[in-house]
UniProtKB/TrEMBL annotation:
Organism: Psychromonas marina
Family label: Belongs to the class I-like SAM-binding methyltransferase superfamily. CmoB family.
Binding partners and assembly: Homotetramer.
Full protein name: tRNA U34 carboxymethyltransferase
SUPFAM superfamilies: S-adenosyl-L-methionine-dependent methyltransferases
Record has tRNA processing as a keyword: yes
Binding-site positions, carboxy-S-adenosyl-L-methionine: K91, W105, K110, G130, D152, P153, S154, M196, Y200, R315
Enzyme Commission number(s) of this protein: 2.5.1.-
Function of the protein: Catalyzes carboxymethyl transfer from carboxy-S-adenosyl-L-methionine (Cx-SAM) to 5-hydroxyuridine (ho5U) to form 5-carboxymethoxyuridine (cmo5U) at position 34 in tRNAs.
């Protein structure tokens, strides 16, 4: 099983120490009640990875750990076979000792869109909500973030993250916990909180925005990215059944409606930083994710629509500040 004791020891000495009041109990409950049926086999794969210390770690321009010449050709092939055991790989790409994990999503494209609009991450405590396998967490670390925590309830994503961290010399300042945002107490400890690709999965988007707010220090920055539709502040799509073959899509607001929601939750300096159409070059099937992808979710006769007839995926990026309470 994944051992979180090092994480407990680390946060005991930093501004997240108050989280220890409930976190060990929560993770103990997860271990006993929510673990995926394949978890034991995934753990066995993690235990087969060779111990390779490397100085070749690039996180600022890409996520590249180690080089091909640090291991033999046979070891590279074995490593590739082991990493394939964690199929499907959705967020990336990763380069590990010459193995290119060509993930479904080109998450580096999203990062290139986000980075110019956010406050510098150097020395910051960062929370990434719905972090997937942790690709963006490594890029945050590459930008100088002091401490990065990701939360995502997927056991597979946790194991994918641990696989990458194994080769990144087990960096104790980047951690993924198998939790949802609703399980976090009001920590008020992070300088920047990211929620990218999560809001449309929440039955109550306003509650989600408030939960994100509860994790920020006063004056902290929210980075919110989600699916949107074209329209004004009164336009919101509520799919009756599926959206792009996904059942768990609840609300797709216009960017202006989303901005209003964030303002109504008490955030300040809310701005729409970017709106971008999702194209099949950014999300597609690969050898590392052989299931259906965006091309299969769009109307083959009209790629501006999903197979259900809804507007094709469009994503907006909003940046906002948590208000600072006036001094009484």
């Amino acid at each position: 099983m994944i051992n979180f004791s090092n994480f407990y020891s680390t946060i005991a000495k930093n501004r997240l120490s108050h989280w220890l009041r409930i976190l060990p109990t929560q993770l103990h409950e997860w271990e006993n009640t929510h673990v995926h049926g394949k978890m034991a086999s995934w753990i066995r794969v993690l235990n087969k990875f060779p111990a390779i210390k490397t100085e070749n770690i690039e996180l600022k321009e890409r996520v590249e750990i180690g080089s091909a010449d640090e291991i033999s050709v046979g070891e590279t092939k074995k490593l590739e076979n082991l990493l394939q055991k964690f199929h499907p790989w959705r967020k990336g790409p990763f380069h590990i000792h010459g193995v290119h994990i060509d993930t479904e999503w080109r998450s580096d494209w999203k990062w290139d869109r986000v980075l110019p609009h956010i406050s510098p991450l150097k020395y910051r405590y960062v929370l990434d909500v719905g972090c997937g396998s942790g690709y963006h967490m490594w890029r945050m670390r590459g930008e100088g973030a002091e401490f990065v925590v990701g939360i995502d309830p997927s056991d597979l994503f946790l194991c994918q993250f641990e696989a990458v961290r194994h080769f990144a010399n087990k960096d104790q300042n980047v951690n993924l916990l198998p939790l949802g945002i609703q399980e976090l107490p009001k920590l008020e400890a992070f300088d920047t909180v990211f929620s990218m690709g999560v809001l449309y999965h929440r039955k109550s988007p306003m509650d989600h925005i408030t939960q994100l707010q509860d994790q920020l220090v006063e004056g902290g920055e929210l980075v919110l990215e989600t699916l949107v539709i074209a329209g004004d502040k009164d336009d919101v799509l509520v799919p009756q059944d599926r959206y792009a073959k996904m059942r768990n899509i609840w609300f797709l607001p216009s960017a202006e409606a989303l901005k209003l929601w964030v303002e109504k939750c008490g955030f300040e300096e809310v701005r729409i930083a970017d709106i971008n159409d999702t194209l099949t070059g950014e999300q597609r099937s690969t050898a590392w994710m052989t299931n259906e992808s965006l091309e299969d979710y769009l109307d083959p006769n009209d790629p501006t629509k999903t197979v259900e007839g809804h507007p094709a995926p469009k994503r907006a990026l909003l940046i906002a500040k948590k208000a600072v309470k006036p001094v009484s």
